[in-house]
Automatic annotation (TrEMBL):
Gene3D superfamilies: YVTN repeat-like/Quinoprotein amine dehydrogenase
InterPro entries, per the entry: JINGUBANG-like (IPR045182), WD40/YVTN_repeat-like_dom_sf (IPR015943), WD40_PAC1 (IPR020472), WD40_repeat_dom_sf (IPR036322), WD40_rpt (IPR001680)
Span list, region Disordered: 28-64
Protein name per Swiss-Prot or TrEMBL: Guanine nucleotide-binding protein subunit beta-like protein
Species the sequence originates in: Nicotiana attenuata
Biased composition regions of type Low complexity, renumbered to the chain: 38-64
UniProt keyword Repeat present: yes
WD repeat segments: 154-184, 226-267, 268-298, 315-347, 359-398
């Protein structure tokens, strides 16, 4: 009997190994008829050939993969059986002592806090705002969490949730079906959300539909109104200062929305392939990254009698797809993750951006990048999260640790300032906490990572903690 059990265990291991190997081969496969399955991890690998990477002004930073400093990194929810009596489809598994977590005087310890595990559906998008966490998956649900417990939620009728942006009491969700849906928070007492519209509005869409001049050709023998995405909305970024929302899509266009009246101000054919990331930066710049292997910088300028976005510079041209972008606004630095496993970065030098080098830390594609003060986090298809620190003086980055624990590719990251949980901060996998002007050694961050293993993991990070480890 014991032998039969061992054989069955070996068969299960072999089956699991084969499944993962097959998934890895799909990561770099060419697009097929099903756009979601073929492009989930590679960011829709581009078929376009392009010029070589820009000249390296500094050497590549080679790091050795290490394990996390947390003693609980190996505690995966997959190794624990879920109770059949749990009503919620998510399970909270705290990994730190609750007394330590609630103590006001406790140090910010680097490591894994806990996991939110969904019984079905990959995690494609995350957004944090104050003490609330929003999660989007292919189940079409947007779940809302508070203190690692289910707080509320809402559901769209079609299109998995690929990107989420929070702006005050409104939540914008970008979907696989090409729609941007708008939701409103009805208050803490009701803990409910209501759909209040979409981008574009129904009124604007009808107006453009009856105007022949409002149509653009998107494919042979197919014309659509220019104000609406006709393919998956893969990314969004918010410019709160100007009241603008940017949306990027697999239809290769970048659209600019005015939040005050939900008007689509511009539609720019920004790339030759799918746009995988857009992020509002510094000096009025907006950056886009695409499966065509390019990173482009745009700025809104007065052209004739109207303001339009013009291409300022193409920062990167390569064969590998650009999958994600993040910006350190305080240091005026741009980071771009790509399917070759590298994170390229550029730094402002007087009136232009200079290529700074590349961060090497992953064996497979980088799928998401986030910034927290001087920390840079990169999530990868190799199931790990590299934590880098930008040293004073710029240009030099050191790999502090590698966070492990996910059983699938890390698809999205978002960061929240732990010391300002009550603030109304808007965060996405493309944004940085704007309040980081204090001493970074005292800064503590809550990092959320979403994975295709159907889980969200919660980490606590601080530069002070890393310094303490390094001094030992």
């Amino acid at each position: 009997m014991a032998r039969k059990k061992n054989s069955m265990g070996e068969m299960l291991l072999e089956k699991e190994s084969f499944r993962r190997t097959k998934f890895g081969t799909l990561l770099y496969s060419e697009p097929v008829s099903d756009p979601e399955e073929s492009n989930t991890n590679s960011g829709r690998s581009s078929n376009a050939s392009s010029a070589p990477s820009p000249p390296r002004t500094s050497s590549f930073y080679t790091t050795t993969t290490t394990t996390t400093n947390s003693p609980n990194y190996f505690m995966s929810p997959w190794n624990q059986s879920a109770s059949p009596y749990v009503k919620s489809p998510w399970i909270h598994q705290p990994l730190l002592d609750s007394s330590e977590e609630s103590s006001e005087n406790s140090d910010c310890k680097n490591g894994l806090i806990g996991s939110l595990v969904r019984e079905e559906g990959h995690i494609y998008s995350l957004a944090a705002s104050g003490d609330l966490l929003y999660t989007g998956s292919d189940s079409k649900n947007i779940r809302v969490w508070k203190n690692l417990k289910e707080y509320s939620g809402f559901k769209s009728h079609s299109g998995l949730v690929k990107t989420i942006v929070v702006y005050g009491d409104k939540i914008f969700t970008g979907h696989q079906d090409g729609k941007i849906r708008v939701w409103k928070f009805l208050g803490k007492k009701r803990k409910a959300y209501k759909r209040v519209g979409s981008l574009p509005t129904i009124k604007d869409y009808i107006k453009s539909s009856i105007n022949p001049k409002a149509y653009v050709e998107v494919r042979r023998n197919r014309n659509v109104p220019w104000i609406r995405h006709f393919d998956a909305v893969s990314c969004m970024s918010l410019d709160k200062e100007r009241g603008l929302l940017y949306s990027g899509s697999w239809d290769k266009t970048l659209k600019v929305w005015r939040l005050s009246d939900s008007k689509c101000l511009e539609s720019i054919t920004a790339h030759y392939d799918a746009i995988n990331s857009v992020v509002v930066g510094f000096d009025g710049l907006v950056f886009t990254g695409s499966a065509d292997g390019t990173v482009k910088a745009w700025r809104r300028e007065l052209v004739g009698n109207s303001a339009k976005h013009v291409l300022v510079e193409t920062l990167l041209k390569q064969d590998n797809a650009v999958t994600s972008l993040a910006v350190n606004t305080m240091a005026a630095t741009v980071y771009a993750g790509s399917s070759d496993g590298l994170v390229n970065f550029w730094e402002r030098q007087k009136h232009f951006l200079e290529y700074g080098g590349a961060l090497r830390g992953h064996k497979l594609a980088v799928l998401c990048v986030a910034v927290a003060g001087n920390l840079v986090l990169s999530g990868s298809a190799d199931k790990s999260i590299c934590v880098w620190r930008r040293e004073e003086g710029g240009g030099v980055h050191s790999c502090l640790t590698v966070l492990t624990g996910h059983n699938g590719p890390v698809k999205c990251l978002t960061v929240e300032d732990y010391s300002n949980d009550d603030d109304d901060n808007d965060n996405n996998d493309d944004s940085e906490d704007e309040a980081v002007v204090k001493n970074n050694s005292d800064q503590c961050w809550t990092v959320y990572s979403g994975s295709l293993d159907n889980s969200v993991k919660v980490w606590r990070l601080s530069e002070q903690g890393f310094n303490a480890y390094e001094d030992m």
